[in-house]
Write a structure and sequence with these properties.
DUF1599
């Protein structure tokens, strides 16, 4: 998601064209923007995401990736939906939700008899 946002900002290239410091600066800026969005949505919609399964985040990420591909296939023309950058930010946020869930849940191994 973050790499996609950076490529939207700078344009996609075949070979690296920025130095590591610039890449980290862009990365940090997009993480900050995405995190701000996540906190705003969490405030607006509550913490329903906490009751979701990690697999549900995976499904949502795949749906967003599919939507990005669809938008790209139509050369950025969207009728009613959000654009590519909004979908990338949603992907980042779903990934963050998944990481939070994975890091706070007690993981119990499944034993088969």
């Amino acid at each position: 998601g973050i790499v996609g946002l950076i490529q939207l900002e700078l344009g996609a290239v075949d070979k690296p064209d920025i130095d590591p410091e610039r890449a980290l600066s862009l990365y940090d800026a997009h993480i900050k923007t995405s995190t701000t969005l996540m906190l705003a949505k969490n405030h607006d919609y509550g913490e329903a995401w906490r009751s979701m399964r990690v697999a549900s985040y995976t499904d949502l990420i795949l749906m967003k990736l599919s939507r990005v591909k669809e938008i790209e296939d139509h050369r950025g023309q969207v009728a009613v939906s959000e654009g590519i950058s909004a979908n990338y930010m949603d992907i980042v946020n779903y990934a963050l939700f998944g990481i939070i869930k994975l890091s706070t849940e007690e993981i119990t191994p499944t034993h088969h008899a």
